[in-house]
């Protein structure tokens, strides 16, 4: 089934460790996004990429980095995890040449201790 | 800057009753507007979208929303609630196809038997 695949689905991580959340899409969408979801705060944009080779900062980019080497993959890296990065992370993609509706992955639940 | 306000973090209705979830947006230009639904432990899926065509938009599962420019609103309704409608609902706005979606904080819908 076409869509977005995120890995891992769940991870417990010690503070200070480096972690990469993986995201792959097979819809050939030009744009990809990372959001974090926290209770009472909704979804907040971390980073995005409108096309391969370019990235942009969202609302809450600090402590996170991304890369977009090709159309399909958009990994999110936490260089040195902190407890405040405990969250559910959603990757999404869209075709911005049309209405730009987002297609979401199933999420990655990250706990930083 | 775009923003979305969802009135009521939690709405509770009886099975068979009208569902009304409120969303107001701010945007300097006519926007694209979206409603997404999130069932427990899942990603978000699109319910419906407004893209400057008809102001009354019909979506999946019997939901619809009406774009009212004069009120800057895009409220979500369903005539008769089902138990299966219990979920988190997010309103989102996009100024143009190339800008990321901005989400509201979400409204949790409970349906009482």
Could you characterize what this model shows?
The complex is a heterodimer of chains A (113) and B (113). Chain A has strands spanning 4-7, 10-13, 19-25, 31-38, 42-49, 56-57, 64-66, 76-78, 87-94, 103-104, 108-112. By secondary structure, chain A is an all-beta fold. In chain A, the strands form 2 sheets. In chain A, strands 2, 4, 5, 6, 9, 10 and 11 form a 7-stranded mixed β-sheet that branches. Chain A has a 4-stranded antiparallel β-sheet with strand order 1-3-8-7, with no helix packed on it. The model of chain B has no long low-confidence stretch (mean pLDDT 91). In chain B, strands 2, 4, 5, 9, 10 and 11 form a 6-stranded mixed β-sheet that branches. In chain B, strands 1-3-8-7-6 form a 5-stranded antiparallel β-sheet, with no helix packed on it. The N and C termini of chain B lie far apart (41 Å). In chain B, strand 6 (56-58) and strand 7 (64-68) form a beta hairpin. With 113 residues, chain B is an all-beta fold. Helix content of chain B is 0%, strand content 55%. The chains are: A mainly beta (113), B mainly beta (113). The A-B interface holds A 4, 31, 33, 35, 40-45, 48, 50, 58, 90, 92, 96-107 and B 9, 32, 34, 36, 41-46, 49, 51, 90, 92, 94, 96-106.
